[in-house]
Amino acid sequence: MNGLSTMPTTAEQARHALLLLGRPASPRLLVDVHSALFDGDLSVPALAALRRDPASGLCAALTLDLTPARGLVALADWPVEQRIVTAAAQRADGLTAVIRVAEFVAIRPGAGRAAHRLLRALAEDVPHGPEALDLVAAARVALDAPELVAAIEADEPRRAAAVERARGLSQEQQLYGLPTVPHQRGGE
After folding, report:
1. Which of 22, 121, 23 is closest to 72 using CA atoms?
2. Is residue 33 within 8 Å of residue 20, measured between CB atoms?
3. Cα–Cα distance measured from residue 139 to residue 161, given in angstroms and rounded to the nearest whole number
4. pTM as predicted
5. What is the tens place of the pLDDT at every residue in 121-159?
């Protein structure tokens, strides 16, 4: 036996899940998606070990102040625009991810129980998703909701400004964010 494995590496497994989702995601969601839809042994602790390894191809999602978004992993080759998150963008991205996963499951012949459990879990984040006959349609309706559209539009100037500021950062800062500065007491 030569010790070579045909199993994808942890980084490749995370990449598969992130590409399917198309957005920054929590390590737990990456593990759930990968476990339900792909072969491998992706785990949250394995992902945690990779988060700051430049060779992994993974990096941090960023907040509007360009600090790492807590608990979110992204692909390093995604443009910074795709890695900056706001509450409204995360909501819209989550709904889009539900659509992508549901469509992926629909085209896979013989999707197993794990895939259907994943869809049931994802449906919980879609208004009327658990009882919807068509999860994709329910997610599309939620994505087009006027309040969400307005929130995304309201965030756009701040997101654009953050993207512009990010372009002035070093490559490492663009991938992993600026260090968070603790709140100072007493000063204004």
Report:
1. 23
2. yes
3. 29
4. 0.86
5. 999 999 999 999 999 999 999 999 999 999 999 999 999
